[in-house]
Specification:
Elements (H helix, E strand, L loop, with lengths): L23 H27 L4 H13 L10
């Protein structure tokens, strides 16, 4: 993941053709979304650990959750 210049925690957001997004507002929304997701995932991991859950299983479930997301905008051929 290529990091952005303004914050090392955010990637350089790219278009499907690989060019960086240039709209500041779009980048701001994507960065805010990523920060919110990161915090929710961190909270879920910590809660699970405090309740005695397996760290490996918690991480696996979070990965599976992301991998299971559907793209509603994908064009059918």
């Amino acid at each position: 993941m290529t990091r952005g210049k303004t914050d090392p925690d955010f990637p350089v957001w790219r278009q499907p053709d690989g060019k960086p997004l240039s709209c500041v507002e779009k980048i701001k929304v994507l960065n805010e979304n990523l920060a919110e997701i990161r915090q929710l995932a961190q909270d879920a991991l910590e809660d699970g650990l405090l309740m005695g859950g397996s760290e490996a299983q918690l991480r696996s479930v979070l990965r599976d959750l992301i991998d299971g997301l559907k793209n509603p905008y994908r064009k059918e051929n």
